[in-house]
Amino acid sequence: MRFQQTPVHGVVLITPDHFDDERGFLQRTWAFDEFEANGLETRMVQRNVSYNRKRHTLRGMHFQNEPYAEVKLVSCSVGAIFDVALDIRPDSPTYGKWFGAELRPENGLMLYVPRGCAHGYLSLEPDSTVEYLISEFYHPEVAGGIRWDDSFFNIGWPAEPTVLNARDATWPDFELVAAGARGSS
After folding, report:
1. Cα(67)–Cα(27) distance, rounded to whole angstroms?
2. 20 to 30 A from 13, CA-CA: which of 7, 29, 104, 163?
3. Please, what CATH class does the domain formed by 2-183 belong to?
4. Do 110 and 136 contact (CB within 8 A), yes or no?
5. pLDDT tens across 104-133, in order?
6. Where do the structural domains in the chain lie, given as residue ranges?
7. Among 64, 82, 50, which Cα is nearest to 135's?
């Protein structure tokens, strides 16, 4: 596997080694020792699969707060997605920055999203399936989100979403949430 640091601190684009033969191909998408050697989280407790029936379905931008902040390792096994990690760590040198990459089976790319980053994606093809490993169990009491079109971050989505649930469309402005968190400390 090749591990490439992105412009967002701690967000890593991972390219699995690809082995072809007459049967097809093999890719190793998880290796404890390689993740550990690259300083990445190795404790993954949950695997999720998300199916997106229609093109331009948007899911995100989601995160969990401490004490259950999570790491995600995201891949696309069918179709294609534009996957985004958004740095919402106030002490990070890349606070407020985002990184996006097109994930599809043909390129095999995976995105490592560290704790303190929000995550979301837009399906680029119908019937897209996303798989991700997560380092923490889901805890709804600390779950949060950022609106996909929040002007504070100005994420460069490749298209407007046509399918979006009410929760993802109505997260509050991040600047208001961040100001409230600073005011309560």
Report:
1. 33
2. 163
3. mainly beta
4. no
5. 999 999 999 999 999 999 999 999 999 999
6. 2-183
7. 64
